[in-house]
Every structure is written in C-alpha cells, then in structure tokens.
Design a protein that fits this description.
Elements: E1 9-12, H1 18-23, E2 26-29, H2 35-40, E3 43-44, H3 52-59
Parallel strand pairs: 1-2, 2-3
Length: about 60
C-alpha cells in the first residue's frame, strides 16, 4: 500500500511484537503488556480489557 513507516501505528503486548515495534515510528503498548514491551513503546495505553485501542484512536481523533 506504500504507506510510510512513520505513518503506521502498531499495537502490541508481548515479546513477539518487539520486531514489529522496531519497524515503525509509533509502537503502542497495551497497558497489560510485558514491561520490556512497555519500555520499547512510544506510548502505553489502557489494557485490552479496557478497550485500550479504541480509547487511543478516539483520543487522537483517528476514529
């Protein structure tokens, strides 16, 4: 789709997401993420049980 990596958001909570975090400018960790994932994140949001992604997207007027 030719979307620049600096315009992509990714969300993750586990060590398997760290490679994805390294590939983009704005990695977002869920509130229930592992500590090392949170440290690698641009921002830490609410947990998955608290609708963290939806709250983030609303906060930044993405949806």
């Amino acid at each position: 789709m030719n979307i620049p990596l600096d315009q992509i958001l990714v969300f993750g909570d586990g060590e398997n997401d760290l490679t994805m975090f390294d590939a983009v400018k704005y990695p977002i960790a869920m509130g229930n993420a592992m500590d090392n994932v949170k440290k690698a994140a641009y921002e830490v949001i609410k947990t998955n049980n608290e609708d963290g992604i939806a709250c983030f997207l609303k906060k930044y007027n993405i949806v």
